[in-house]
Amino acid sequence: MKSFKDIFERYHWDGVKQKLEKITLSDVEHSLLKKNKTIDDFLNLISPVAAQKLELMANMARSITQKRFGKTIQLYAPLYLSNECQNICTYCGFSLDNKIKRKTLTDTELMIEASVLKAMAVNHVLLVSGEANKTVGIFYFLNAVRLLKPHFANISIEVQPLSKDEYSQLHKEGVHSVLVYQETYHEEVYKEYHPKGKKSNFQFRLETPDRIGKAGIHKIGLGVLLGLEDWRVDSFFNALHIDYLQKQYWKSRFSVSFPRLRPAEGIIEPNFIMEDKDLLQLICAYRIWNEDLEISISTRENEKFRDHIISLGATAMSAASKTNPGGYAVDQESLEQFETSDERSMEEIRNVIKKSGYDPVMKDWDSVYSGF
Description:
- It contains 15 helices and nine strands.
- It is about 40% helix and about 10% strand.
- It is of the alpha/beta class.
- The protein has an eight-stranded parallel barrel with strand order 1-2-3-4-5-6-7-8, surrounded by five helices.
């Protein structure tokens, strides 16, 4: 069976970059008019020259999103389980070489955090942790899901890459979706950002979405860490990955997230600056290219941007996020993975969505529909 590695190796980073620079306005206009768009059309839409068509792209993105998803925004909140990590990542507050107090939630602490989220009316929770296989591994995750499943309609996870069998176990317990970010598809510099730990294995991480797909997970989420390398080239490879996965695991749904580098303990400065207008162009390009793709916006982004993106392609947003284990109630001073920008409450975000003419959805899927 063909793997993504086979497709990935057909492309070279510098070759994609050169192609981007040669794209003309005529190429962009042609892509916008096409009914069935390809990965080459996506490349045209994220090109520098396509910025001249941003207003048209935004209007198209709004129309396509409303046609496919209606005027709804799903809300969710992250629940950080642990900041223990065995990797050294030069951009992350949880990095092993940061001399900080480590914290992993106990069962009791986990349920205290969950109770705070439930009080906010949260029904979709995203479990997040550092990558520490020995202390926060599959048995910890299975236990957390079992504890939380009676209280939340939708449980997603964003943890270290696991085996196909481990993803299958989580699927059987009721995990709805798995998010995994390659961080950057620039293989030559990947090791510089990840000098130590299992995460330094570029190929193992690249193959993770395949293992998730083979396990039958309902939804697979991808993304790159915007700011590490050229966002246009990285996003092309991310879209290429999604294109492959959708064809290979057609029963699963897919989402894309847009984490931009934010301040955190001991991190590097962004290597490439991505302006708000660039992120808007990228989001519109994804929507125009792929009508079925779910688009998630986190609290890394500022209030103004998040308010405007509600009608321009987003389908899901986090709110009231705490990015440290115990951040909602148990240990509010523990180290956060990164600083949030939009610190408004869940209720405030719901009101903003309503004022925009959209419906905030706290629950749009239930495990009962899959026989769990």
